[in-house]
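Much of what follows relies on a compact textual record of a protein's fold. A complete example follows; check for yourself that the lines match position by position.
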Amino acid sequence: MAEVFLRRLSRWQAEQQREAVAGLYVEAYRELAGAGSQDRQAFLRRFEHDVQQPDFDMVVAEAGGLVGSLYGYRAARTGEWWQGFRGVLPAEIEEQTASGRVFLLGELMVGPAQRRSGIATRLRRLLLTRHTDDVVVAVIKRDDDLGREVLRAWDWTKLGEFDPGREGWLRPPSPMP
């Protein structure tokens, strides 16, 4: 396998790389039923929205082309992104939301040929070096077994369920390994 290099992208660079990132998205999710051009367009719409969010931050992995990507952004202080959460949020999470200290992971993608090689963990470490004091949350589809497997491997904690069909995961409060 070729050597993998990581780099951080500015908002402008991320926008310039949008087609390559969308290509990675299609490759990463190709084995899912129905993944195709509609999913690519839906991803591009989400990405266009996400890249404009406060404190958007993105890292990519390259090895003769894009092989991995992870991005996220600062959650709205209003807490509206918690809509659909079933259950009671811990008080410290509500406080962190109100103070603007919640960072949402938007999308993690690693090409199938590079999975299980530590790229996702390297991407996470680099991305979150700027967010050590933040509560970091990932929201995944309830049927996203691969995403759940990655979050468990990172020792994240399931925070709860969202409607419709999503679940939230929380980075542990201790420093990352």
